[in-house]
Amino acid sequence: GESVGLHLPTLSVQEGDNSIINCAYSNSASDYFIWYKQESGKGPQFIIDIRSNMDKRQGQRVTVLLNKTVKHLSLQIAATQPGDSAVYFCAENLGQGNLIFGKGTKLSVKP
Amino acid sequence: NAGVTQTPKFQVLKTGQSMTLQCAQDMNHNSMYWYRQDPGMGLRLIYYSASEGTTDKGEVPNGYNVSRLNKREFSLRLESAAPSQTSVYFCASSAEGVAGYTFGSGTRLTVV
Fold first, then answer.
1. Whether B103 and A99 lie within 8 Å, measured CB to CB
2. Which of A1, A63, A68, B14 fits A76 for a cystine, CB–CB 3.0-4.6 Å?
3. With an 8 Å Cβ cutoff, are A34 and B105 in contact?
4. How many Å lie between the alpha carbon of B68 and the closest alpha carbon of chain A?
5. What is the pLDDT of residues B78-94, one digit of tens each?
């Protein structure tokens, strides 16, 4: 889930297990929701997005679920690998340059 | 195809010094952005440029200026650096109609 304060919440999973990273958003006017992956020392990397009129979208090994009723977004990673270890951010795209990021969740994959 | 290129990668400034962070993209994107990333704060928008010749303030513009030099380049200037501006700065760009942004690898700035 989203962090409060200076420390990121951490999700620790075993290699091969599925991971679920959650995010709560606040703005009902968002057009798109996006998940980014950020590895140490690098910029955020786009993973997958979902339009506000959808509730599920699948990519390669990733699935994003959107529940507009409770303003909740989740990212599911199947068969998590060590290379998936990173900080994951959800973001709301409100249009006109307004991309609002959450504070991030650190995923740690144990071999 | 380099994507979004930022220079420098690291910089240490003394309080009161000025500097310009450079950003260039080779994807022919119309929109470009500057974000700062602080521990526990996620990424916050400083300024953005929807197209060549236009710039707009984001969430945290104070202490910064920007220039959209041409379609490729968008620079961020600190006129008088302060310790509160110690952060990692990311430039990003996006194409029209595309929700996701492409980010550079960042500039780690320390103001002492």
1. no
2. A63
3. no
4. 15
5. 999 999 999 999 999 99
Spatial distance between the Cα atoms of A8 and B56, rounded to a whole number of angstroms = 30
The answer to whether residues A34 and A59 touch, using CB atoms and an 8 Å cutoff, is: no
A81: its two tokens? 């690998």
What CA–CA distance (Å, rounded) separates A82 from B92?
27
Using the Cβ of B105 and the Cβ atoms of chain A, whether some distance falls under 8 Å is answered with: yes
Going by C-alpha positions, the residue among B105, B89, B32 that lies closest to residue A43 is: B105
Tell me which chain B residue has its CA closest to the CA of residue A100.
Answer: B44
**Can you say whether residue B70 is alpha, beta or left, with left for phi > 0 and alpha for psi between -120 and 50 degrees?**
beta
User: B50, A96: Cβ pair inside 8 Å?
Assistant: yes
| Average pLDDT along chain A, 111 residues, taken 10 residues at a time | 54 96 87 92 93 94 94 96 95 82 92 88
Pair of tokens at residue A102: 């959450």
Residue A45: beta bridge partners?
A37
